[in-house]
Amino acid sequence: MRQRDIFWFWLPLFASWLLMTAEGPIVSAAINRLPNEVVMLAAQGIVVSLSVTIESPIINLLATSTALVKDRASFLQVRRFAIHWMILLTAITILIAFTPVFDLVVVRWLGTPEAVATWVRPGMQIMTLWSAAIAWRRFLQGVLIAFNQPRKMAWGTAVRLLTSGGLVILLAIFTDWPGVVNGSTALMVGVVAEAIYATVAVRPLLQKELAANQPTTEPALTYRDLFWFHLPLAGTSVMILLVQPLVTFSLARLDRPTESLAAWPVVFQVMLMARAASFALPEAVIALTKGPETYQPIRRFSLTLAGVVAVAIALFTFSPLARLYLFGIQDMTAEVGGLAQSSLIYFLPFPALTVISMWLRGVLINGRKTTAVNVAMVVNMIVTVVVLAAGLAGQWPGLPTAAVALGLAVLAEIFYLGWRAHRLWPVFSPKLATRSS
């Protein structure tokens, strides 16, 4: 397998993730140009944090769909599974957004300042159907990747970005709505637009490769098998996305809570964009791995990618680009922007380490060792909690504490994933890989 073949398969997936991560900065840039921007940005950060935490069990529907949809019967089974998740997660969102559970979660558990919490509720109410739309499009995107059509996934994300980015700008110009209402509305409409596109994009497959009259040689996929395949991945996603509320919880109790809560969403968005290359790796690994002989080329690609990402984030952090982005594009206040800029250096290793962890996740998911992926995330969470707890006990600076926690956690995860992947395939030894093939 040539490096260029891996690159051209991975590139549309990367483009999709990069476009997706650009959505948050566009929304926050619009909010920063509206009244009461510090409070609104902090509220928007919590709305997004809670929304992605609720959706977390279905984030890995992309990997599940990529790995398991092989014919019409398996497509229908995974679709049924996705719909059940859509109903459940929508009910949870309604419970938090429209009942007294909101005060328990946002005010008591997260410790959100009252001035910020007041604006979180309308944002959550607008995002009621967020998880349902995410589940549907992740399921369909996985089908597209499984049948070698990753470019359609990238086009769908472009539709989402144009819709949400264009809408938030129009709302900022032509309405006097509060920033969090503008931002949440734009995000909700954007993800619905992407879900509609995915529905249209998958129709040719339903008429050909996934048509009812197509023969199949695959064993029937049972709901039980599907459930137990996806459950560890769902647990992994829940723990990954619980990290953001954990950081929010810590920042609300450390030095300069309002400024830190306002800076954290922007820093997190920078890290999301820096990690877009890594987020595209698991599905590429799953789709391209055909046997032991393919592991070495994919490993080489992944490690090269980690080096490129490390150089890119270093250039951004230490060049005028960081200041241009924070104070020019995002239009942050001097206090909040300065806090964000000074904190970026602590996050430098994080994106490159994420590339390595995502490669190893793909290796294990392809080998149907999803429980190992889940255990690795438990390791990640334990390290995160321990470091954040130490930061709270010692009253360390907020954002640097978050950076150290995230960096050490993903490093611990890599050690565990590498150990399990080495047991599955000799991915770290070219000689052994040659013998295995």
Number of strands: 0
Biggest beta sheet attributes: none
N-to-C SSE series? HHHHHHHHHHHHHHHHHHHHH
Count of domains: 1
What percent of residues adopt helix (DSSP H or I)? over 70%
Shape: globular
Rg over CA atoms: 21 Å
**Low-confidence segments:** 427-437
Quickly give the structural class: mainly alpha
Question: Beta fraction of the residues?
Answer: under 5%
Distance separating the two termini = 14 Å
- Helix count, DSSP H or I runs of 4 or more residues: 21
Q: Overall pLDDT, averaged?
A: 89
Fold and architecture overview:
This protein is mainly α and 437 residues long. The chain has one domain (3-432). Helices cover 81% and strands 0% of the residues. It is built from 21 helices and no strands. The protein has helices at 3-31, 37-55, 61-68, 72-98, 101-109, 114-126, 130-146, 150-174, 179-201, 203-207, 223-251, 257-274, 276-279, 281-288, 295-318, 320-329, 334-344, 349-366, 370-394, 398-424, 430-436. Helix 6 packs parallel to helix 9 (179-201). The chain starts with a helix and ends with a helix.
